[in-house]
Design brief:
The complex is a heterodimer of chains A (351) and B (284). With 351 residues, chain A is mostly helical. Chain A has 17 helices and two strands. The N and C termini of chain A lie far apart (74 Å). Chain B has two domains: 104 residues, no CATH class; 169 residues, 3-Layer(aba) Sandwich (Rossmann fold). The N terminus of chain B is likely disordered. Classes of the chains: A mainly alpha (351), B alpha+beta (284).
């Protein structure tokens, strides 16, 4: 006895056709049904779809390059939105996915996997004809998605993303700035401590370098960014801060002073004054340091950082009474964080 | 008599100029140096020592100790307690209980102060003899945010600097610094200029260099504990040990005023272990 052949048609979904439909209906930036559906596909399914899409676009480009590029860019937008909307991949869907740890208050917290969707987006964009660098939409896509990755604190995903972006647009001031921000954040005590916690727990090593190595990289990218686009106030501020952390205090003061002159406002102005204060203090120019810190305190009277810095200078210079006065200011600040408003706490975020 | 003499020393940091008004900066002329010293034998404090029992070398130059007081000078105890995000629930309860144990262990004339911190540094209880206010403060600020350990230590040391009494700063943290503005190096430098003795308690497996360097620089001690379960006992041990320290003072002779002064403190003919700050700093 042999079983009769099943007369029903194959139930295997045609993922490529579904993907084409999803790309067509997806509204960029909208967590719609299409994005949610594609996000459930397995790694091999997604790899197959993107390979098919690239082949399809190449064929289409011979006769209608605009349509081919539109498909690739809409596809990239779809996958970037999935990466944005579903940043925490707790299940491994592809062997290529790197394992990463989330860090909270300087210690590793939980395991997740790098989202595959950013890489898929990059693969699609790489197919843009005649070349990705010639299409301004590609530049915009990389600028926007890089900003999103940094804002989402998806730093592991941001590194290959910015690496590829800068291979295509090596002198783009915005992308160079984001790359600097990434390295500066890697240098923070928060992430350095988190990295140490991984090593101590024998869970591997982080992908970033020591504080000094990351600061050095950040300095280079900020500097290059400012060469390309000198009017970036935030890049100027961060460049000045990083120079100071590397011990180049005179250069830091010049750069921070220029950020102020160029019109740094509110949080950026406050941070400029704080960093100027730190650099003047490092040079033993205590009066100038005090003046800068007082300016910061005037901008954010409920911030604790200028008070701590002023009390420290006072104590360091032997003026106990002034140190105690600043401490009294600190003690009088409101109890609730929402009422404190200290931009230093959010410095590593993009402004 | 020893108490009276001690009170006459204006305690503007470790290095002091007698009778200077508080608003003035330090004189470069050193008139009195005081050093907090723990003397133990077989792990137990050694009582009954006199100035003649101590041998002090200031930058290698032998000094004459004028005063050695023991258990006679009131204490200023500052608690700097990490209440960041990782300290919640039972652990926070243990910490609050341990803080209460310290306050309960104080004697009439002693004073206490409180700094709690996450990334926000709450320095809202200055040194006070009204210990109920300190007890209440322990339950006011809840665990949240990142960890500004270095900033909080700086605030705690400033609060502890007092013209009256001996000052102890007990620093508790379960992690490493993740958000301070001040750098560890700069606060260590301030610690070397002051006379606050810092005892640290670290819980968990993270070991940062700052608490170790800080306690060594001030002649204190660092306790590493696995959990917060026995925190009250640890805090109690710290208070008892600090109470059983000597305060010795001398007027420096034959040493220059400014810069780093290396200190060697020994006890003659006793075979005792001595713990004191390794030196002090004068000038900018």
């Amino acid at each position: 006895m042999f079983a009769a052949a099943d007369p029903r048609p194959s139930r295997q979904p045609d993922r490529f056709k579904e993907w084409l439909d999803a790309v067509e209906v997806h509204q960029p930036g909208d967590p719609g049904k299409a994005a949610v559906e594609v996000s459930t596909w397995t790694g091999p399914e997604l790899d197959g779809v993107v390979a098919a899409a690239s082949r399809h676009a190449r064929a289409l480009a011979k006769t209608d390059p605009d349509r081919a590029n539109r498909l690739l860019l809409r596809g990239a937008a779809l996958h970037a939105d999935i990466g944005r909307l579903i940043p925490e991949e707790t299940k491994r869907r592809s062997d290529r996915q790197q394992r990463v740890y989330t860090i909270k208050d300087g210690r590793w917290q939980s395991l997740r996997y790098v989202s595959v969707h950013w890489e898929l987006g990059r693969l699609l964009v790489d197919g843009v004809v005649p070349e990705p660098a010639s299409d301004p939409r590609v530049r915009t896509w990389y600028q926007e998605t890089s900003r999103d990755l940094i804002k989402l604190r998806s730093l592991v995903e941001a590194l290959p993303h910015l690496t590829r972006a800068l291979q295509i647009f090596p002198t783009d001031g915005t992308l160079l700035f984001y790359r600097g921000v990434l390295h500066e954040r890697n240098s923070s005590s928060l992430l350095q401590a988190g990295s140490d916690s991984l090593t101590e727990a024998n869970r591997g090593t982080s992908t970033f370098g020591t504080t000094r190595a990351e600061l050095t990289r950040a300095e280079r990218f900020f500097r290059l960014s400012l060469v390309s686009q000198p009017d970036q106030i935030e890049a100027r501020l961060r460049h000045g801060r990083v120079l100071g952390e590397l011990g180049q205090h005179d250069e830091a003061i010049a750069e921070l002073g220029r950020a102020v002159e160029d019109g740094a406002a509110q949080e950026l102005l406050y941070l400029s004054h704080l960093f100027l204060g730190r650099n003047y203090e490092a040079l033993g120019r205590y009066e100038e340091a005090r003046a800068e810190l007082e300016r910061a305190a005037a901008l954010y009277p409920r911030a604790q950082t200028p008070r701590l810095a002023l009390s420290h200078i006072a104590r360091r210079t032997g003026n106990r009474a002034a140190a105690q006065r600043e401490l009294a200011h600190l003690a009088a600040l409101p109890d609730m964080e929402g009422e404190r408003q200290d931009p230093w706490w959010h410095y590593y975020e993009l402004h | 008599m020893a108490l009276l003499r001690a009170a006459l020393i204006a305690l503007a940091g470790l290095v002091v100029a007698v009778a200077l008004p508080a608003a003035q900066t330090f004189s470069s002329r050193i008139e009195a140096v005081r050093v907090d010293v723990l003397v133990t034998a077989n792990g137990r404090p050694v009582p009954g020592l006199t100035p003649a029992d101590f041998e002090v070398l200031d930058n290698g130059v032998r000094q004459t100790v004028d005063l050695a007081s023991f258990e006679q000078i009131p204490l200023n105890v500052v608690l700097a307690l990490d209440m960041s995000a990782s300290l919640q629930g039972l652990r926070l309860g243990h910490l609050q209980a341990a803080g209460t144990t310290v306050v309960d262990g104080l004697k009439p004339g002693d004073r206490a102060a409180l700094v709690t911190f996450g990334h926000i540094v709450f320095a809202n209880q200055a040194l006070t003899g009204d210990l109920d206010r300190v007890r209440a403060g322990l339950f006011q600020n809840r665990g949240e945010g990142l960890t500004s350990l270095v900033d909080a230590v700086h605030a705690g040391m400033l609060i502890g600097e007092s013209d009256v009494g001996r000052s102890l700063l007990i620093v508790f943290s379960d992690g490493v610094d993740t958000s301070s503005w001040l750098t560890a190096e700069s606060v260590l430098e301030t610690a070397r200029r002051g006379d606050v003795v810092v005892y640290g308690v670290e819980v968990g497996q993270r070991r940062a260099s700052f608490p170790r360097d800080l306690t060594e620089a001030t002649g204190g001690r660092l306790f590493a504990v696995e959990s917060t379960k026995d925190l009250s006992a640890t805090f109690s041990t710290i208070l008892e040990e600090f109470r059983n320290r000597y305060l010795i003072s001398y007027s420096p002779r034959g040493v220059s005023g400014s810069g780093w002064h290396r200190l060697d403190v020994r006890v003659r003919n006793r075979g005792a272990a001595v713990k004191a700050r390794p030196g002090y700093f004068v000038g900018r």
